[in-house]
Amino acid sequence: MYEATTTKKEPVFDYHLSATIAENIHAVPKACWINSFKAIQTQEQLEKAWYVEGWAVPLNHPMPIEHGWIETEAGIIIDPTFAAIQDEDNPDNYYRYFTGVRYTKAQLQGVDGEKLPHVWTFGGWGGYQYPPYRNAYEQAISFANEKHNA
């Protein structure tokens, strides 16, 4: 099956690498799953990275967003969609990421890039029947509520 998150420390977003990847793949706003899927399939430096489906919470507007991104073995988040629409100069616009499921490049073989997020194919509509994905959503909601009430 697919891998739920096992990262012990919180991953770190790398804006510069994300922006480079976004430029390389011609990332499109509001196409996070396609952008990340395309990046992991085509960018050699991401050979050992994971394509991730989960939830992101903007720090400046705490509301969970179903989202796709890439994570490296070193715990670096590469988000070509975010980098394509955001300016590095305002870190308040950054996100907190909650991994629901991640896939290696090999696990994505045969996956139709037009039918993403992939978790919906085995976790039901919204992916909620897959416990790690549902758990990531619940963590994102909890984080958003804490940020909103702070």
How many domains, in number, for the residues? 1
The average pLDDT value, as a whole number, equals: 90
SSE pattern, N- to C-terminal: EHHEEEHEHH
Distance from N terminus to C terminus (CA atoms, Å) equals 38 Å
Strand content: 15-25%
**Overall radius of gyration:** 14 Å
- Which strand order spans the largest sheet, edge to edge or round the barrel? 1-4-3-2-5
Uncertain parts: none
Instruction: Kindly state the number of beta strands.
Output: 5
The 3D shape can be described as globular
Largest sheet: 5 strands, mixed
Number of helices: 5
- Helical content, roughly? 25-40%
Q: Which structural class is indicated by helix and strand composition?
A: alpha+beta
Overview of the molecule:
- With 150 residues, the protein is an alpha+beta fold.
- It has a 5-stranded mixed sheet with strand order 1-4-3-2-5.
- A hairpin with a 6-residue loop joins strand 2 and strand 3.
- The protein has 5 helices and 5 strands.
- The protein has one domain.
- It is globular and about 40 Å long.
Features:
single chain; 150 residues; 5 helices; globular
Q: Can I get a quick summary?
A:
By secondary structure, the chain is α+β, with helices and mostly antiparallel strands.
Secondary-structure topology with pairs:
Layout: E1 12-13, H1 15-25, H2 32-42, E2 50-58, E3 65-71, E4 76-78, H3 80-85, E5 95-103, H4 119-123, H5 131-149
Parallel strand pairs: 1-4
Antiparallel strand pairs: 2-3, 2-5, 3-4
Helix pairs in contact: 1-2
